[in-house]
Structures are given as C-alpha cells and as structure tokens.
Amino acid sequence: MIRGCLFFDIDGTLVDSERTGQVDEEVLEAIRTAKKNGYACLIASGRSLAGLSQYRDIGMDGYVFSDGAGILIEGKDMILDPIPKEQVLKLIEQAKEYHAELFMSSLHTSFASQEQYQMMKEWEAILSKDGKEADLGLHRLEELNDDPILESDICFKSPAEEQIWLAVKDPSLEYINTTASYGRNGGTSGELTHIGVTKGTGALLAAEMLGCDRANTYAFGDSMNDASMLKECAFGIAMGNSAEELKEIADYITADINDRGIINALEYYGII
Q1: H/E element, 262
Q2: What does the pLDDT look like over 128-181, one tens digit per residue?
Q3: Three-state DSSP class for 222?
Q4: Residues 122, 70, 76, 139: what is their CA dihedral angle, to the nearest 10 degrees?
Q5: Which of these, 38, 41, 36, 40, lies nearest to 13 by C-alpha position?
Q6: Pairing of strands 151-156, 101-105
Q7: What stretches of 106-239 adopt beta strand conformation (E)?
Q8: Model confidence over 189-201: pLDDT tens digits?
Q9: Contact 237/265 with Cβ under 8 angstroms?
Q10: What's the pTM?
C-alpha cells in the first residue's frame, strides 16, 4: 500500500540546469529510499514528455507533464487534456498581433516561433547527455500539424503588451505568469493550458490513479508554475532558491537545490 505520493519539479528543484542538468546521485539515493519506505515518486514538470526523455530511466513511478495536461503512470492508460485546436490557432494569430513568442508542445513534438526556436535549439544542446543530442521533436511554428497541443509558453517583450493580450485572452485557456521565476530581461512570460489544467490538478489525479489520498501528497517546486501543485497537495515544499512569491504559499521552505534541499525536506517530513 502506498504511504504517500511525492511530486518533484525538475528545473530548479531536482536539477540545476546551469550546472550539469543531471539529478545528483545523493538525491537519487534519497528518492530510492523514499520508494523503499512506501512512497510513490513522480516528476511533475512543465516540460513535454519529449523534454523528459533523459529522466525516464531514473526510477520514477510516473510523470505529470506539460503542466498537468499529460499523465503517464506505468501500467495505466495515459491521460491527455489538450488545448482545443480552435484556441491554438487563435493564440497563434494573437501572438503575431501582440508581438509575442510561442513555444507549443504536443506529446512528442514541439513548435516554436523564431526566437523561441533558436533558444530551444540551444536548450537541446544543454540537455545533451553522454554526447547524444536530446530530441525535443522541435519544429518551426509554421510547420504546425494536427498533433494535439498540450501546453504553450508565451513570451512578451514588455508587461504592457502582456496586459493588452490578457484583456482579450480566450477564457478557455489557463494562464500562469512565470516572469518571477524566469526573468525575461524586461519582458514577461507565461504558460498556457486548457482551462482547469494545472500541475496541481494533474498531481491530484495522478495520486488518485495510484490510490493515494490527498492527505498524503507532497509537492516540491521552485517556480510559479509549481504554485498550483504546492496549493493542491497536502504539503507544499518550496526550494531555498525558489521565487519569493512561491515561498509565501509554501508549507515548508527547504534549503537551496545545491545545499541538499530535497534531502533536507524528505528528512524533515520523516519520509527518509
């Protein structure tokens, strides 16, 4: 019987992408100990499933990806909640009108406007492992096909342009402003899913699929796209390197990612 579910964000929580892009062995050992103690350990990320490829072999019990729009648990049917195609096309037209950049993710592919395409090509190189280039299934936005879009990043050159767009944003889209976590050199950024789809809803649904009560759910994160997860789970843990806005809603603030943050939190809650 599962004692609880642990949901870990990747970037800034499990992994310091500016260093190695890999999960430290000490953290992996702590996760293995948690699993031995009866806890299911899952990744909960804004990344697409393709973007999680290098973390598919580290012993996790499941994945909440694309900000909750996708759930993959071994032995269970995959759950997907994409953005309706009509809203996807409308968003593309609005991005052109309001000078915004888009990065749209489907299950195995992604589509990016010009600046985002160049940035993500660089990110692919950062994600490289053992000399093998990571594959995000990256395409230019003009190559958009019928693949269902699960999540989209949107970036504006100024807060003023973001505010103008927000006034006309389709109400069927969930929007999370992530500027506090991912500074844009004076610009703003956010993430979009179908309305009602967040990391928080995805985490609770994954816990339910595993037979775990909400009272025994733990969320670990560092950025504002983790806020819903920290709120929805019974215990919300913010990393020491988290955005200040996230720390304000956390139940517990642990140490920095590079100062045993995950391990300290697991010890604090008696999980290991």
Answers
A1: helix 261-268
A2: 655 555 666 889 999 999 999 999 999 998 889 999 999 999 999 999 988 866
A3: coil
A4: -40
A5: 41
A6: antiparallel
A7: 110-112, 138-140, 151-156, 173-177, 188-194, 217-221, 235-238
A8: 899 999 999 999 9
A9: yes
A10: 0.91
